[in-house]
Structures are given as C-alpha cells and as structure tokens.
Amino acid sequence: MSVAFRRESDEEHLEPKFELPIPPGPNLVTPRGLALIRDRVAELERRIAAAPADARDALKRDLRYWNTRAATAELAPPPGSDEAGIGTRVRFRLNGQSRTLEIVGHDEADPAADRIAFSAPLARALIGAIPGEQLDFAGRADAITLDSVEPI
C-alpha cells in the first residue's frame, strides 16, 4: 500500500518532550533552597492530582526534575567566619560600583533578586574571599574589592 494512504497518528507530528536538564556537579543548597525544592514538589503533586489527563505529562516531567533535585540536595557546609561562600550575602565593589549579592544553590538562584548560583563566574571569584581582599575577575587583576560578608 502506498504511504499516501496510510493514516498517521497525531503523535508522529508532536515535538519530542525531553527531560529537563540537571545542572552538572553537586546539588549544594542553602536551608532556604531545600525548603523551596520541597515546596515545589508538593505544589506539583497537588497540581497533577487536580489537572486534566492531557495536562499531566508536562507536570509529571517537572515533578521528575524536582524529585531528582530533592533526592540529590546536599546542605552546603557553612563557610568560615567572614568568608564568602554558599549561603552568604556579600557586598563588594566591581568597576567602582557597589553591589550586594547572595550566593546560593542552582535552584534558588534568581539574578533579578540579586541571588546567584555558586557556579556563576562572579560567585566563583568571590567564594573563599574575606572582607578587604582584592580579587581578579574577567581577566582583570584586582577588579573586585570585597567589602563585607554575612550569613543569609
């Protein structure tokens, strides 16, 4: 029989649905980040229970991602006294402008709210530094001056 007369299912024409990518490396989180992950899992479970059957697949995919993040979450060890690390708020000067950021885990990161992931280049430059220290960043020597560090 000719392919012209074959009935194709609608499934053949849908875009493939891939799993959400998991960031590489350890899943270090702050206590707030761990609570956010658990809240997200609970919210998705409620939404799946209430959703119509045709909307559940996308929600289940999201739930698999968040369940994996919850299962692999490790509370970040607290940094040393006055040392920038995961779970700290840092105030620094970069290019003459003062900024304040929180260094957090991947799932808690929100650059618009001044929370960056510990794997971000700026966070990597800051981690381990103490107030008063000059840091290299973006190929420039002494580009950052760390003013203060406090726990979140």
TrEMBL record:
GO biological process: regulation of DNA-templated transcription elongation
Region (Disordered): 1-25
Keyword hit for Acyltransferase: no
InterPro entries xref list: GreA/GreB_C_sf, Tscrpt_elong_fac_GreA/B_C
Residue ranges, compositional bias (Basic and acidic residues): 1-18
Domain (Transcription elongation factor GreA/GreB C-terminal) ranges: 81-138
UniProt keyword list: Elongation factor, Kinase, Protein biosynthesis, Transferase
GO molecular function terms noted in the UniProt entry: DNA binding; kinase activity; translation elongation factor activity
Transferase recorded as keyword: yes
SUPFAM superfamilies: FKBP-like
Pfam families, per the entry: GreA_GreB
Protein name: Nucleoside-diphosphate kinase
Lineage of source species: Bacteria, Pseudomonadati, Pseudomonadota, Alphaproteobacteria, Sphingomonadales
